[in-house]
Amino acid sequence: MIRPQLSADGLAVRLPIAARAEQLLDDLALAYVEAPDDLGRLLAHHGENVRALDHAVYAHDVPDHVRAMRAAVADGSREALAAEVPIAADLDDLLDPDAAITLAGRITRLAADIRHRRTNRSPRP
User: Does residue 69 contact residue 2 with C-beta atoms inside 8 Å?
Assistant: First the structure.
């Protein structure tokens, strides 16, 4: 489960996911070692799809249906890539109601602490 914490400066709530990204990158690297040509083609294809989607999102003259189609294509190539990296399916936390309430309570307490710190600063001499 995600363990929220305060940032180092105490001004934001951090939801640490770096360890999960590290796991994903490690599995991606292992998959590449096992089948570099296949995974390389998948990565290149997905990169092209993401580039096309970025262009569609930020260009002012691209119709909405084209944006939607490019998003669907990028989603498809991302899913194909994720199928090669089995840990990707395990990255999302699925919270039952009690766990979701507990997480929300932790985030709320941390946010309240931040608000308290900001409103109760003493003036500097």
Answer: no
Cα of 40 vs its chain's centroid, Å: 22
Q: In the structure encoding, which two tokens stand for residue 112, read together?
A: 């309240």
pLDDT in tens, 65-124: 999 999 999 999 998 888 887 776 667 777 889 988 999 999 999 999 898 888 876 665
Question: Are 50 and 43 in contact, with CB atoms under 8 Å apart?
Answer: no
Largest CA distance in the chain: 64
The pTM score is: 0.64
Q: Single out the residue of 13, 9, 12, 8 nearest to residue 104, CA to CA.
A: 13
Beta bridge partners of 14: 5
